[in-house]
């Protein structure tokens, strides 16, 4: 029997494959028996799956975010494919799986991206700025390798935060060729630090899926947490006070509007640009994702994170 | 010749007195000669004063915020009293003046108020909270004795910040008798710390008059500065992390609305009440000030800091 | 068999008890037979209950807001307890029940609270104010004893309106010790009258549950209705015009913001304080209620009436 | 010497005429002497006038809103005409003046407009509505004959309130031919009553110029005052309660938006239409006034009461 | 057997009738068989209907917006009438049906309304304006005869756009008798053109039901589309530039507020009035519709398109 | 005598130089004689200048925006330098002046910038897009060479519009290397066309100073005017309809928010990015300008076009 990816399923198939349990619920059918209602995903899509007449052990054994191996029949139910599970077990080390095949991941390798970010840090000339950035990024490295940039919004993919930082660094470098009066030390540092405290604000598992916000995350938020991080490191290394203050200002003002969490608006051009690099990267990501899901000449549904806009996929060539 | 207070001046008087220069400008009269145009104040009022045909030395000698001794004629000019200066000199130590007689001050003695605040700190049972508050308040004591609470708004009087804190503590204590589930340790600490970083945000002279905002004050603001203060002290004394976080949350949320500087709204009842104690104290101060300036049965002008409201001074008895 | 409160139910119990029908619906099961689907409450909680294979008479007999006596089996259904009703009858006088045991009530006895409010009225020195307040409060007494303060928001409990008034009076008295220039006659009267016309705006049953808003309540609202009440009584007793006007102004402005129903903002300090006493009492009530439902160290869900905030239940001791 | 209107003045004229003192101020010239600086108006325009070297008696004799007779020289001063007063005296009964010649008035005779409004009242079939309207309008008749509709905004002309009502009645009648389901009794009554309490809210002199707002006007506003008026009359005549309530609702909701003073939005079509008739009449008046002041093809300045819009006077024919 | 309208159905009837399929879904019953779940409408109401045990052919044959003939039993299901379909077929030409009997239509005949609109065009004196309006209206005539004015809001009935235009023209004519300075050519043209591009913005079927918005409708909107229409025609006929510009301005500004799609607010009185005529017509339509559905003395539910207001149906006579 | 630039003036100098009259007013001195009050500028700064005892001919001869040659004394008046004009005449061809020396200009040569823009057009592959852009840019070339981008806001310098376009093109090219899915044809075209109709909206003289807005500019605005431009050209050359629609959408949506003139928000990523390129270029320009005017470590005044923010000039090196 062939191992299949979800995208390859067809009505009538009898398939075998590995999937991640995105969610699972125990329900009761009209004949009063329990069954398990799964949403299974791999990196090609998602499908509803039923394990009829499950046992109490099944209910306790197969839980959210686990990798499982499954055999079953693909049927069509009210116009949608569904998987009727025949066999189920946990994936094991021997199955030799790569997480990238089962969850949405940033398009580049985490360690590679981390190394690229470090190259930008190498370009920072001001030693105080460089030390602050280095200290913080290495302290956060473990989490940075898999953390998403958000719970449900833009870059909510494994290693999404790192990908977001790296893309912004590329844009920052290019635009500082056009706006030559900018201090690139500040700008690069701002890009790297602006969301770095998200690793403290959110609790994410190794799949890059956020389960919750931390208490401090909810009571203070990553902007305040980031400022404190800079304050502590800058104090420790005895950095110039203005430099510490400017980096904190960049983090503080990067959401731009008070109602989005920035009590101060940018007062230096590097902070101003940081905000727009951030928002451009989020929007390009979200719009591109929306476009990938629709045909040329069509509109997407209204997308909440784009302020309820629809996105149009034109017939012109892309890129 | 009699020493007179501004409130006692009458048209035709020839007076002598001590005054503070609130502002001074060198102007040119229609006959092309320079004269000095003063606004003089004491704690009973303010008056316009002219030094006609002043010398270059005069222009360089008599500056804003200085105490001067003056003789002159009180005249009426277009319906208002004005002082024509005949003699002028700086006040000296020998004149033996009290600053309270020349600038608007809080109605109680600064050291007395400080001691009263300390009594509230004594009531704090939780030792971590107590230590944090003590450490910060003694560190700020020098400035606290004369700082106003604002540049132009509520409690913009000498020692106004201390007075604001003390009055709020009284209200906090009383309302915690009604709302008995509140943690008074948190509440008292929140009251004392909520605006404490205003001593870093603003630059005020010993007269309690704010000349400017500091760079950090403008780029970060007293809310963020206050959080960093708590973070540093709590780290130093090894305070419980939740306690530090809750105190920071109280400072962070006390302006309540994002557009007024609080990226997070209160999530504990003590923070919620802190906000309202703050606003009640500001409003009672501003409304009472407005009422003092008008007759019973009259309305004040529109008052900007009361969102452009007029205040009505009823004919009913007060208090 | 033991009489049990809902909070004591355990899976497998066969129980007997008295409950209030919070809501009831006739539904049809998958085998095409009607059954009754109840939500039953007492003052310890609420539970879903089913009366399977009910008769037409049952459907017409057991209605919302009735007190019933029930026997049945407690079972677990998809993780929640459910009551399978075996026997059901109406409660009778002979059962000797107290309404306090079946609906959420204010924490103090209505008549006691009313008497306490009357004591505050006794403190009012101005005779016109006193007469107006007395006339209105006695006219509303019957309803005041059981009316809630709202349909679903703060103080939506039996006698909640009276409790709200009494608590605010306590706070008003205490804060007028701090802000000594306030006219306590006006302040106490404002507290008592500010929401008094809610007894005309809403239609509530003796359980303190609001079924609907009256026509006048919807077309004019309790603020306007309250003003008319004062206008009529003041005219009848020939009260001083300024006093009537000030009381009306306090009622008119107590929601503070036009978008919350106050076309005029407070222009006297007593009206200003009235607004904040009102909002503090609502918030302390709602936050406390939220905290009671969660463990220390946890956050509540987002609470709509707190503008979608979560509330945090700290690990510090309360009160 | 010829009696001239302001619009006829030319540089170099020596004129005689009657004018109203719109405002007057005593100023001091560069040679330190007092002079009186007048703004004089008649119904053709306004002009600045100077009485040089005035006496103390002059200063006390010629006051705002008085009618005066004046002789003087018309000169040009920095591009504008100015009147240098040579002779001045008060107008007397013998001068036989009509107020319409000296202040901006509604384009129709007040008594005629009042009679026209009465004709609309005659058309009201419901006797309760008719009695309420009649009672209130006759009670307000004296003031209605000369009151403007506002202090500075739309219809701020003598008898402007009456003109506003009459024009709206005409529109109301016509639109009820198109929207035939409307109750014209309610609609006509709503039009007549919607602003009627402006005669209590504002204090205006017989010239139709508002000097101030009354205390009750400021603390409650004409909407609340109007509701109380209806409430009192309806109670007195024992009107149907629904009718009284609907008329009050119409007055309450006619500003439509809470932030403009209506805590309730219209819930009946007659109230909805009332709002739009009101706003259309204000806008047509203000736009027409703006257009009259500019040439074809030009834009007006930004007009505050039109939300800072400019108005364009097209080259097309009007009417 | 009698042909019956939906409004005449009673529990237990065996009926025959013609209906329009408003929507249809294939569902699966608890015994795992497909059935068709219809919403059927005629111009008297709507009813749920089931075709149990349908065939694959049925599923493909009976589709949304088709007219069908049906026999079946009227039963009561959970308090509502439901139709159990016994026989079903498509309506045919021979059935001789009128669309007006099956969908909500404007209350007047489309061709009649079009002719009435043309009469207003005849009244336009300015030849450029007349030609532009004529050219555009005849170009849109086909669609105009059946297009609604909106997808779900006001005038979402067959020929609703034409009805909206005609009613506004009547009001425009009447109000220009009151406001005699208006240019009726501009006003009539503005009324006719303001929404004319809705026929390009939306895609509606002959039933007057909007299925979707066009791509250009979504990317530009009917306001911009209408301006381009005028621009093209005006250029073609060589119309006066100011006239073209004014007509475009009227279309551009008729939504009044930027957030509703008008980047410029009205700057001529005709545009100002156009906006209010538009909004009055929408509101009278929506409120009347709401009132028709409720008893005297009752309130409607909250109505979204009326900004969530309830509407009150008074006991007074209508019209 | 030496020809001096304004920046070189010192108190006591007797200078000669060429200047542009930025504004001029005839005033009357206290001795009742006319004098001319100039603001003179060159590209180094601006100075107030007086021509005392001017003749009628002078008043009519020296007008705004003229280039003049002047001799005079530099004096200090109330702390500021002022020029007392001794000799004045118009500049002549023989003086051989360059406009760049007298008004603020974009930092690059207009023709050079135009040629650079054309190079970007050469990169557009889609022939329809290319033709539309070419047609419009050549049609506007004359004005484009000197038009500013705004009356008082960002890029309000000679040739500012062209400079704004060119800078954005550079950024667009660079960011499309990072966001590789973008269609650069659309993006470049959008950048070039987004503000192109400002040459129709505003009336500017050859100095690049806007005197006023055109009638069409005020009634429709440059966004609508730009759409019509594209519509006309696209129709003429028979361009693909989707392409025309997308270009119009980009122009329509580039202000992003309805309240800033865009009734539709961007629905394609190229339009989204266009908006941010636009705003980044404006902000970098305005912030850099603000920074140039202040010392390191200082804050600017509040800058209206930066939403009343102050800008901080850090001590770090720039660029």
TrEMBL record, chains A, B, C, D, E, F:
| Listed name of the protein | 3'-5' exoribonuclease
Question: CDD domains attached here?
Answer: HDc, YhaM_OBF_like
Which Gene3D superfamilies would you find in this protein's record? Hypothetical protein af1432 (1.10.3210.10), Nucleic acid-binding proteins (2.40.50.140)
Q: Which GO terms describe its biological process?
A: rRNA 3'-end processing
Q: Give the Pfam families listed for this entry.
A: HD (PF01966), tRNA_anti-codon (PF01336)
Protein origin, superkingdom: Bacteria
Q: Does the keyword Hydrolase apply?
A: yes
Drop me one GO molecular function for this one: hydrolase activity
Q: What SMART domains does the entry give?
A: HDc (SM00471)
> What keywords does the record list, in alphabetical order?
Hydrolase
InterPro entries, per this entry?
HD/PDEase_dom, HD_domain, NA-bd_OB-fold, NA-bd_OB_tRNA, YhaM_exoribonuc/phosphodiest
Q: Which residues form the HD/PDEase domain?
A: 157-292
Is S-adenosyl-L-methionine set as a keyword in this record?
no
């Amino acid at each position: 029997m062939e191992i299949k990816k979800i995208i390859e399923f067809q009505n009538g198939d009898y398939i075998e494959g590995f999937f991640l349990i995105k969610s699972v619920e125990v329900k009761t059918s009209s004949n009063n028996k329990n069954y398990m209602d799964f949403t299974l995903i791999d990196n090609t899509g998602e499908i509803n799956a039923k394990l009829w007449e499950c046992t109490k052990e099944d209910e306790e054994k197969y839980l959210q975010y686990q990798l499982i191996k499954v055999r079953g029949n693909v049927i069509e139910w009210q116009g949608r494919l569904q998987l009727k599970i025949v066999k189920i077990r946990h994936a094991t080390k021997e199955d030799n799986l790569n997480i990238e095949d089962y969850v949405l991941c940033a398009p580049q390798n985490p360690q590679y991206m981390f190394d690229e970010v470090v190259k930008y840090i190498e370009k920072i000339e001001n030693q105080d700025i460089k030390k602050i950035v280095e200290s913080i990024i290495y302290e956060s490295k473990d989490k940075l390798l898999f953390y998403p940039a958000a719970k449900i919004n833009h870059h909510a993919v494994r290693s999404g935060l790192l990908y977001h930082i790296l893309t912004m660094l590329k844009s920052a470098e290019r635009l500082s060729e056009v706006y030559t009066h900018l201090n690139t030390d500040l700008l690069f540092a701002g890009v790297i630090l602006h969301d770095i405290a998200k690793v403290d604000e959110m609790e994410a598992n190794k799949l890059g899926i956020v389960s919750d916000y931390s208490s401090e995350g909810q009571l203070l938020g990553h902007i305040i947490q980031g400022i404190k991080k800079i304050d502590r490191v800058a104090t420790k290394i005895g950095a110039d006070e203005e430099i510490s203050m400017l980096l904190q200002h960049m983090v503080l003002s990067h959401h731009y509007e008070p109602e989005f969490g920035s009590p101060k608006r940018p007062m230096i051009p590097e902070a101003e640009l940081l905000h727009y690099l951030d928002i451009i990267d989020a929007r390009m990501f979200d719009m591109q994702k929306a476009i990938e899901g629709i045909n040329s000449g069509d509109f997407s549904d209204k997308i909440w994170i784009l302020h309820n806009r629809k996105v149009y996929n034109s017939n012109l060539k892309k890129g």
